[in-house]
Design goal:
This is Transcription termination factor like. The protein has 35 helices and two strands. By secondary structure, it is mainly α. The protein has a two-stranded antiparallel sheet with strand order 1-2. 19% of the residues are buried.
């Protein structure tokens, strides 16, 4: 909204008045009384604004020159008029008495005369001295105004007489040394409102303020935090002895809080200054009895100084008891608070209970909440309505089921600390558009590998996608591989290259085997892939990658033994004996398959008479079929 302009010839007002539209020679046939209005075009508007701005600048320059022509005496009178406590009312439309001596300098601002001009020309060399004198007089007037306010307050509230109030005011200002104290506090970074509050808190003992401020500076409290520490510590801090405060500092230092940390701790938790040494010892022992050592306690106090003086002992016990309800022992709670002491600053009713109820609604058990609390305790310090609920709603929208969301949060609790619009959504969009993951599989991909949401797109995901595409894998196939095994994009390429080289050159496996079993990259090359491949080569057997790697060492040894036993029995012809014995059993479909299999094997390994009427191709075909069945077994 434009401010009101009192001068009738102001350019801004003229601009507002001249922006009226110009009537055209054409009129509306339906309403001939109202002319058709049009506005200025861009060229005419720019010319008009330039003309008005030049006039405005010239008038401002003239007004500035007129102000510079004010004599020093009138400047002093104007200063006094602005600083006096009681002056006639001045508002737009007021009628002033021209004979008033205080208002005479106003006339020189707008109507300078020749006498003033000559006087200023003669005194140009003394302008600096006049400015300094004006500053000193301004300070003098301010002090007199403050004294008048103090005397009026004594007369109004204390019912003191005029003479008594004047004598007391003069004595206080002279004997209390309040002016040097205010200067010293202002030099140390305290604002005037804080200085006034400190003077009121000191109950007249102004020297105690300087005394306490010097002690705080000795323990490395910075200047801008001096006022905060003194104001929030309480009024009794000015009555305390320095020996008691030094004893508190020495005790904290003996329990792991370094000396150069004391200023930071006291400025962030000034309540320690008003506590007795016995109370400080009780609070320190409260944490040490939970299994903390001195190093953990010192770093905990430095990370969150309010753990010592912000809460009462009753509140501290309530929060520790509530944390134990998750199944944590006393030592585990101590380690948890040493790792994240900000938990002690969270409210049970306003922060923890609503979050626990919401997590229980998602299907997370108490053990799951305990895992979340121990891995990422900051989750219990955030506002779940603005931080957690939008993320859960987003996961539901992309197709993750409720039980999958619960498993995700328990498996990877740092997920809840990521930004939804800066971290989670961009990764999901990248997986769909650049990594080939189908939209119907994105929920499955995220639920199986929530760690992907914590990876950098430019430094990790995009680099891995380019590497797999360079191997000859199509984008659609890569999307299916990622949906089956999302951790594929989190591995370092330097670890993937040797495994792929060994698979293709040494094991001589096709690329399709890798596409069907992308978890191949998750196994150790030296400890699992190479040893098991050597066993297969030595025994002249072959397994698919899934059956070769996705089992324990005992299961793999058993598979190798079973394979060798079947081959041995097959080569020795023991299958025929099994067929002969099976003839006495019921003629079931399974038995008939075994008989057919044994007949095929006998046709391969036993000598047979060849009928000349049978073609050679049929014999070769039967032999080839038998060989294929042997390989499949």
């Amino acid at each position: 909204m434009l401010p009101s302009v009192s001068c009738p010839h102001s350019p801004l007002l003229s601009l507002r008045r001249t922006t009226t539209t110009i009537s055209s020679s054409l009129h509306n046939p339906t309403s001939p009384q109202d002319p058709v209005l049009r506005q200025h075009n861009s060229k005419s508007t720019s010319l008009l604004l330039r003309h008005l701005s030049n006039n405005h600048e010239s008038k401002q320059q003239q007004q500035q020159e007129q102000r510079d022509l004010i004599p020093p005496e009138d400047k002093i009178k104007l200063l006094e008029m602005s600083l006096v406590t009681k002056r006639p009312p001045q508002f737009p439309g007021s009628i002033y008495d021209a004979s008033d001596s205080l208002l005479q300098p106003l006339q020189t601002i707008f109507k300078p005369n020749n006498t003033n001009l000559k006087q200023i020309d003669n005194n140009n060399d003394d302008l600096d001295d006049v400015d300094e004198e004006m500053i000193m007089k301004a300070l003098d007037i301010r002090r007199k105004v403050t004294a008048e306010i103090f005397k009026n307050a004594m007369k109004r509230t204390g019912k003191f007489g005029i003479t008594y109030s004047t004598n007391v005011t003069d004595r206080v200002i002279e004997d209390s040394n309040v002016v040097p104290l205010i200067r010293w506090l202002k030099h140390n970074g305290l604002s005037y409102p804080k200085i006034a509050k400190l003077i009121c808190m000191s109950s007249g003992n102004l020297e105690s303020i300087r005394y306490m401020a010097q002690w705080l500076k000795s323990i490395h409290v910075k200047g801008e935090f001096l006022g905060v520490a003194l104001l929030k510590s309480g009024g009794n801090v000015f009555k305390r002895n320095v020996e008691e405060l030094n004893e508190i500092v020495d005790y904290l230092e003996s329990n792991g809080v370094r000396r150069d940390w004391m200023g930071y701790v006291m400025s962030r938790c000034p309540q320690l200054l008003s506590q007795s040494i016995e109370e400080v010892k009780m609070r320190v022992q409260f944490y040490l009895h939970m299994g903390m050592n001195q190093n953990d306690f010192g770093t905990m106090v430095f990370d969150y100084p309010k753990v010592l003086g912000f809460l009462s002992l009753e509140e501290m016990n309530q929060k520790v008891s509530y944390l134990k309800e998750f199944g944590l022992s006393t030592e585990e709670v101590g380690r948890l608070l040493a790792f994240k002491p900000h938990l002690m600053g969270c409210s049970i009713e306003e922060r923890w209970k609503p979050l626990v109820k919401y997590l229980y609604y998602l299907g997370i058990s108490r053990d799951g909440m305990r895992r979340m609390l121990t891995i990422k305790p900051i989750v219990f310090c955030v506002d779940f309505e603005t931080t957690i609920v939008p993320k859960v709603k987003f996961f539901q929208d992309i197709g993750v089921r409720d039980d999958g969301i619960a498993n995700m949060l328990v498996k990877f609790p740092p997920l809840l600390t990521y930004s939804l619009y800066k971290k989670i959504r961009p990764v999901v969009i990248f997986l769909i558009t650049k990594a080939g993951v189908n939209e119907r599989d994105i929920g499955k991909c995220i639920s199986q590998g929530p760690e992907l949401l914590g990876c950098s797109i430019g430094n990790k995901l995009e680099v891995n996608v380019k590497y797999f595409l360079s191997l000859g894998i199509k984008l659609q196939q890569l999307g299916e591989m990622i949906a089956d095994f999302p951790m594929l994009l989190r591995y370092n390429i330097d670890l993937l290259r040797p495994k792929y080289r060994y698979l293709r050159r040494t094991m001589v496996r096709p690329l399709q085997d890798l596409i069907e079993f992308p978890r191949f990259f998750s196994y150790s090359l030296e400890e699992r892939i190479i040893p098991r491949h050597k066993v297969m080569v030595e025994n002249q057997i072959n397994f698919k990658l899934r059956y070769m790697l996705a089992c324990s060492d005992e299961e793999f040894s058993q598979k190798v033994a079973d394979k060798l036993e079947r081959r041995r029995r097959f080569e020795l012809g023991l299958v025929n004996e099994a067929v002969t014995e099976s003839q006495t059993d019921d003629d079931s479909p399974g038995k008939r398959e075994e008989v057919a299999y044994s007949e095929t094997a006998n046709s391969i390994f036993e000598p047979q008479a060849v009928d000349p009427s049978v073609g050679r191709t049929e014999l070769d075909r039967s032999n080839s079929n038998g060989s294929q069945s042997c390989l499949t077994q």
